[in-house]
Amino acid sequence: MKKTSIRKKGSPNILLVNPWIHDFAAYDFWAKPIGLLYLAAILRSSGFNISYIDCLDRFHPKTHLKGSSRYGKGPYLKTRIEKPAGLKDINRNYSRYGIFPEWLKDDLETLPRPDLILVTSLMTYWYPGVKEIISFLKGFFPGVFVVLGGVYARLCTDHAKANCGADLVIDKESEELIITLAEDLTGYKADSIIPFQGFDSYPYPAFDLQNKVDYIPLLTSRGCPYSCDYCASSFLRQNLSFRSPENVLKEIIYWHEQYHVVDFAFYDDALLVNAKEHIIPILKGIIKSGIDVRFHTPNAMHINRITYEIACLMFKAGFINIRIGLETADFDDIARLDRKINQADFIKGVENLIKAGFKKEQIGAYLLIGLPNQKMQPIESSIIDVKKRGISPILAYYTPIPHTRLWKTAVDSSRYDIEKDPVFTNNAIFPCQKGPFSWEKITHLKKLLQT
After folding, report:
1. Is position 203 within any domain?
2. How far apart, in whole angstroms, are the C-alpha atoms of residue 395 and residue 400?
3. In this structure, are strands 13-18 and 116-119 parallel, antiparallel, or unpaired?
4. Distance between CA 322 and CA 297 in Å, rounded?
5. Measuring CA to CA, how many Å separate 86 from each of 80, 83, 89, 257?
6. What's the domain range around 29?
7. What is the mean pLDDT of residues 366-379?
8. Of 189, 127, 204, 199, which is closest to residue 158 (Cα–Cα)?
9. How far apart are CA 433 and CA 243, in angstroms?
10. CATH code assigned at 143
11. Distance from C-alpha of 1 to C-alpha of 102, rounded to nearest angstrom
12. Which residues are CB-contacts of 232 (< 8 A; sequence separation ≥ 6)?
């Protein structure tokens, strides 16, 4: 059973749920529902009774999994299920990732009946798991109002309203409105309303509601000044905003001292933007504090902003996994997709990291594959070019995303009707290739990575 806040007599019970994933593959690469847990913290601080269910919990008391692998990452429990209609020809197993439904039932039976249920969502093509969990919750708690938010809800609002089964779908960021929404739906007057004054006005995300706090995602800024054709960041958040360096440092120290957390993963889309006022003071504060922790950058950093000073500070602060968003090493064509890097930036950024002390195996460059009308030769050349620099090429499968500039091209190039059903945008099936899914292409590229 998930931990709950200390119950306040007369306060409504709100249940927050992180749903199952339905997919061909899924793995916990420092993945936590940070937005949902921000909402949990805000609601809890305003007097609501909070319960939390994580259907992806790798540390559920009944699980046979070992829990963490290196640095907090690890596999999800999975159960093979039937593939969605239209994907029967894909020669891959399809699974529900997360705890068994009977475990979920047992956990729900230990909780007080909720007055309101909040469900989050992430990848658009994971909506079948969202739909399943909402149906499960409505069957278990008949008559309880269910609200859906998150990335899928915002990118595919009409589809979510028509298909997911929620009573209300939120198509905007929820921190500003969650207290008012909870008051309206429960009839309860909150103890206090936190004014929207940026991240510094929020309590830390309620990671303490997890069965185990094995790592902590950090969000120190929101938004991105770039507008790459394949990315929806500018749609999801139009303005760039920052937390104060002091607040970020306090949060790191809090989780380290109170919960003995060692691994932290930055979720920022633009971690190095405004570096002198933001990341540099954060890094200097970490170094000055003397805490022994590790940092990871799964969302990738802008290589053109990695100066030698920043590289040295990251090394001294304890950064372990460095990921850069290269997308392609075909620099003659890169401006078509990515407006933030050129060949000189790439070479200089890698040199700065190596000179600062990072080992080459600690540095990985994401390369996008599966783009509309993309040929194999540029991918192969990009892999070879990255390896020549001594760092690791990492294949990142392209997902067609609504509200991006590349969406129309993706729709036109896809062999599926991706406008009608987001399940067909699954990057594991290479939806923007005219030909059928091919294990041979994937095997060929993976062998090239290893040679």
Report:
1. no
2. 16
3. parallel
4. 6
5. 17, 8, 8, 50
6. 13-186
7. 89
8. 127
9. 41
10. 3.40.50.280
11. 13
12. 155, 401, 402, 403, 404
| E strand or H helix that includes residue 39 | helix 34-45
CA distances from 309 to 296, 312, 350, 363, 373 (A): 18, 5, 13, 17, 40
Q: pLDDT (tens digit, 9 = 90+) per residue, 128-186?
A: 999 999 999 999 999 999 999 999 999 999 999 999 999 999 999 888 899 999 999 99
Bridge-based pairing of strands 294-296 and 263-266 is parallel
| Torsion angle of the four alpha carbons 154, 114, 17, 50, in this order, in degrees rounded to the nearest 10 | 100
233 — phi, psi (to 5°)?
-60, -40
Q: Are residues 135 and 30 in the same domain?
A: yes
Residue type, 409: T
Please state the domain count of the chain.
2
pLDDT at 376: 86
pTM score, whole prediction: 0.93
Position 72 in a domain: yes
Task: Give the integer Cα–Cα distance in Å for 55 and 127.
Answer: 14
Same domain, residue pair 437 and 384: yes
Residue 258 lies in a domain: yes
Distance (Å) of CA 302 to CA 122, 250, 284: 23, 25, 20
Query: What's the gap between Cα 168 and its chain centre?
Result: 23
Residues 264 and 171 in one domain: no
Q: List the structure tokens of 51.
A: 């319960």
- Amino acid identity for residue 114 in this structure: P
- Alpha-carbon gap, residue 140 to 114, rounded angstroms: 11
Residue 28: CB atoms within 10 Å? 18
Distance CA(99)–CA(62), nearest Å, equals 9
- Cα separation, 210 vs 201, whole angstroms: 23
H helices present in 215-342, as ranges: 233-236, 245-259, 279-289, 308-317
Q: How far apart are CA 112 and CA 19, in angstroms?
A: 19
| Closest residue by Cα to residue 28 from 230, 215, 160, 287 | 215
Which whole number is the average pLDDT over 103-125? 98
3-state secondary structure of 91: coil
152, part of any domain: yes
